[in-house]
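Work package 3, deliverable 3.1, input record:
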Amino acid sequence: MTTTDIPTIADPNESGARAAVRDFVARARGGDLGSAPVVAGLIVIWIVFEILNPTFLSSTNLVNLTMQSAAVGTIALGVVLVLLIGEIDLSVGSVSGLASAVLAVGFVELGMPLPVVLVAAVASGALVGLLFGLIRTRFGVPSFVITLAGLLGVLGVQLAVLGRTGSINLPFESWIVQFGTQWFLPAWLSYTLVVAAVGSYAWSQVVLARRRTEARLPAVPLRTIIVRSVALLVLLTAAAWYLNLSRGVGVMFALFLLLAALTQLALTRTRWGRSVYAVGGNVEAARRAGIRVNRVYVSVFVLCSSLAALGGVFAAARLAAANQSSGGGDTNLNAIAAAVIGGTSLFGGRGSALSAVLGVIVIMSITSGLALINPDSSLRYIITGAVLLLAVVIDSLSRRSRAAAGRA
Amino acid sequence: MTYSTQPAEHLLSLRGISKRFGAVRALTDVDLDVYAGEVVAIVGDNGAGKSTLVKILSGVHPQDAGEISFEGVPVTISNPTEARGLGIETIYQDLSLCDNLDVVSNLWLGRELLTNGGLDEVAMEQQSWTLLRELNARIPSVRVPVAALSGGQRQVVAIARSLVGDPKVVILDEPTAALGVAQTAEVLNLIERLRERGLGVILISHNIADVQAVSDRIVVLRLGRNNGDLRVADVTSEMIIGAITGASDASLLRGTRPAAVAR
């Protein structure tokens, strides 16, 4: 067997950074922008708010921002999954509210142990998702309509669970509230986790490159892996260091990042993940390839609603309360907007779990920045709406230029 | 032309296949034989029953009457998974590729190789290159999304994908319908390579020139019935068209008697 006809990804004489830039330019021309627009947008947003109010980029404010992001970000993670199979879930806000209510009522009014209540809260979400998935696959009703009905129906269940009290406060001493408001990683642990995460990333890349070289396939050069890993290490260490100037990295936020990483692994390294992308790309092709499409639909709806419920638990833990407006207001749209702004396509089959992280930070930066300038929420809604619109326009434009470059 | 070139192994044999959709008789008493290492073209006008026959073989619809035997054993094909399990792969006209996935992902979709519970991308990529090289296929990279490939390259990917499961019979539904001249030639070369691998190939086509260029035998369907089983070497395109349109007598053309093709 010869290797002459195998194209090499990067010229070995070229430095890793230059090859990466060239690769990116080639992909961007083809309309595959990846995370570039959202990162650029985030930098612009941060600069503008920092100019308008110098406390915006203070360590204290950024710690608050990360803690606010965890709940909506977890919900957005589920939305990413649903968007990947080309569906939508409009009920995530209501489902998160229901989970908040189940948590508060079970723990405070019924006095059940916390672990049981937590399982019940997430299970209530899973149940709703199962129902959506079954209706979607059995009757073929568009998910837009199913989840719109779910938005109302689940809100009703939430109100029924809360009963006449309407608002329930969680005891401040309970560990769930401590977890949502007071628990931060010690500085040494945050650095250890950063090193461990970057180390395992670098190690997996080195192992992969070695296997590819043994298999006589083009592999990422060791130098590129080192450059990337060091860059990642510097970036994450700097972020952890800056947050550690104030209260540090919240346990809830770290848990959200862990969930995002696990979701990303499941999407890229498992058969299930591959089938999610396949269903989003071409359902009929996926079915003909022997993928059990209905199972993919049901599993994704269950996961989405379960993550929404977990997000609701996070929100209740952070606010130390659940009430009739938990999960209402802009929760729903913020979560969906976060997924789309982060770069997950509304058209299905394109996106990653990372987009939930980036998107939610953009959304929360706008919320937090405007709250510092002007406590009135009118401007916040307008600007969030405009950013969402911009993200969708970028999505549509890149889809069009992908089509022009033959990468639709 | 003599019978000596006829491959001996009887792969697939259909007898008396009938299929109705309500009041419409899509197929009536159709026979079809496919041998290993042979390309059989199924031709016919619109509504002649070509697609219905393909769908019965690929497990989309079961037949109402008639027997299918595979390698001499009577079988029932009630769904696409069973067809694939027997070793019958179908390449649909729309190719059924996921545009957002790369070539490797498409080739192995639904039967990914695993290592330690995760996808074994290295093994899949390596075997993809081996397969594409065996087919002499020119694909720039197996890590580009399929949407970035030309029509001919996409057809190559679809054909290569059908070979991943190591099938015995490959059915191609109008593989050249949307292709240019050069790409058509490439796909026809590929079909010849499938024959060299000892596969039974069923080619559905409207294009008489393509059919004559690549197939060994032509089965003509007309109004859901057999209207001729012709050896390509013995017939002209006028005769094929005559059988398709019904201008020639079906009874004379039935069977492979060389004398029968003389009018």
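Chain B is about 30% helix and 25% strand.
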